[in-house]
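User: Here's a protein and a ligand (zinc ion). What would the complex look like?
Assistant: Let me lay out the input and then the predicted complex.
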Amino acid sequence: MRDLPLARFTIDRAAQLRSNPLWFEQAWASQATRVLVLHERKIPITAELSVVWVKPWSLKMSASDAKEAALFLGADAEHTYIAIMKDEVGLADVNWASLRDVGSQLSATDVGLATSAVALATWHEGHNFCPSCGQRTTIAMAGWSRKCASHETEQYPRTEPAMIVAVEDTAGRILLGRRREWPQGWLSTLAGFVEAGESCEAAVIREVYEESGIHVDLSSLRYLGSQPWPFPASLMLAYRAIATSTQVEMHDDEMTEVQWFSRAELETACDAETLKLPSPVSIAFRLIQSWYGTDIPLKWCRD
Ligand SMILES: [Zn+2]
C-alpha cells in the first residue's frame, strides 16, 4: 500500500545535524527557516487546508525559550523545518486541527513533517522525568531525545507497533468488528498491539483469535505496508490473512460485535447507514478498500 496519508514523508530528516550544538542558533537566525507551531497536539492550517508555516521572528519568543521547545524536523534545498511546542499560540487567522481530521487532505510535504512533529511532541509531553531517578529531563539532540543530568542517560522517542489485519474467508468475505467504546454501526478491521517479546505475525494470529474466535493460517499472512499513527505513539503494520474457520466467538471484552461481510452486504449496510467505515486517513480504510477492489465512497466513512 503506497501513499498512506500519514506515511508521506518527503523531506530529508538530516539526522546528522541533530548533534550539532549550534543547530538551533543557526536555524532560529535564518530567513530560510519555517516553523510549525504545535498546540495541544494540533497543527495550524489555513482554510484551504495547508499547514501554516511561520518565520522564527514572527513568534516573538526569546531564543532561549524557543530552544527548549524546538524540534528539528528536516531540511531541503530551500528551507530548514522546525516545530515549536507552544502553550500560548499567538497566531491569528488559523484553524487548529488534528492530523486525524485533516491528514488525508494535506500535501505530502506538510503531512510528513506534521506527523513527525506531532509524534515527537506527544512523546515529550509524557516523558519529562527520568525513569531511573525521577529527576526532570531536558530536551536534547534537536528534539530527538531527552537527557537526565544526574546520570547522563538519554531517553529516545518510542514507537509502539500494532498490527491491523483484513481477515478474509475462503468465500471472499471480510471480517469487521466494533470496539466496545465505539458507537453503534462503526466497524473496522481487527487490530491490536504487539506484546512484549512477540512477533508481529504472532500478534495477528493471537489478536484475531481473541477478538473473533477465528483461526487464521500463518502461511496466508501477507504484509501490505505501515503507517505511523501518533495518537499517541503507534506504528500500524497492515496484513491480509485468510481464515481457516468462520464461526465467530469473542474471547475478550474488547469487541461488542464481529461479523463477516460480503461486498454486496457491505454496500447494502453502508447505503442504509447501519455501517460506517473508518476515516480515509486510517490504514484500516485502505485495507478495506483494497479488499473491496474499487474506491469506497466517502459518504460510507466516518469524518
Ligand atoms: Zn536520572
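Summary: The chain has two domains: 15-155, 160-294.
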